[in-house]
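Researcher: Quick test of sequence recovery. Tokens follow.
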């Protein structure tokens, strides 16, 4: 009986722990902006991953009048061409939201392009999709 209680408690802890897993998050500078990118899967997975981009200016105010595009690439490998994709975003409150579809596992380079008043700033980072 005690063995079954221990197993049930382990399952509950496992389920509860995964329900509160944090998003994959990256914070970096892009030109004059402080940019926070969150991906709803940690680690990102093959298939759809929701991405949220938050941009703040030098004074700490939200930037809500920019065009934000997320480009994600995987370099060419033997027997496979390079993969290049773009995800458009739309403004929702103070955040730009979009969806990336990572077509295979492995290392992906992600570049967030922020265009405002004909000036483009870029933020780059990498993820390993599983």
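Model:
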């Amino acid at each position: 009986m005690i063995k079954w209680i221990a197993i049930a408690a382990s399952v509950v802890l496992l389920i509860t722990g995964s329900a509160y897993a944090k998003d994959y998050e990256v914070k970096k500078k892009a030109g004059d902006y402080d940019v926070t990118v969150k991906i709803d899967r940690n680690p990102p997975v093959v298939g759809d991953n929701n991405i949220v981009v938050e941009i703040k200016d030098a004074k700490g105010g939200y930037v809500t009048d920019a065009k934000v595009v997320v480009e994600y690439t995987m370099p060419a490998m033997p027997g496979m061409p390079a993969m290049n994709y773009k995800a458009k975003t739309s403004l929702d409150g103070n955040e730009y939201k979009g969806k990336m579809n990572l077509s295979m596992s492995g290392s992906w380079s992600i570049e967030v392009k922020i265009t405002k008043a004909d000036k483009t700033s870029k933020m780059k980072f990498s993820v390993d999709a599983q």
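Helices lie at 2-19.
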